[in-house]
Description:
Helix content is 84%, strand content 0%. The protein is mainly alpha-helical and 76 residues long.
Amino acid sequence: MKAIDIGAYFLIYDFIIGVLVMLSSEKLGGYAGCLNKSHRKTIARLTQVSAFAFGACVAVLCSGIYIVFYTLRLGI
């Protein structure tokens, strides 16, 4: 029976969530702009940039950790 690596599944799921947050950052900015009508454009722009940056950081961090531990497991 093969051992299941649950940590790898968590990293892959976090990578997918990070990419999805990156892709939906424009939509999240639009929703955040609807909450405050007086500063709509500023809030939408800041939310869009911060959501994209957060998603990118999560995706890069998770993919880097996965690649490092995968190469360590292979013994390269």
